[in-house]
Amino acid sequence: MKSYIVATPAQLGQVLKSARNASELSQAALGQQVNVLQKTVSALENNPAAVQTETVFKILSALNLELVLRRKPANEDTQDDW
Length: 82
What we know:
The chain is an all-alpha fold. It is built from four helices and no strands.
């Protein structure tokens, strides 16, 4: 999987959904792997700001993803959606 820059909760949800689909996992199957309900996986994909941070990290791990933080370039003109 290529690297993605995630600057908003909505972008996080889309990246996680794409990674889940690429892994050929249903929401229910992914939820079973990390011991959360299917509706929690759905909530993460559709409204990640409402999901607990611990759940996000469990799902990242199940999808074999890691979170990397870096400073935004000074010239990058992005709008925060917080």
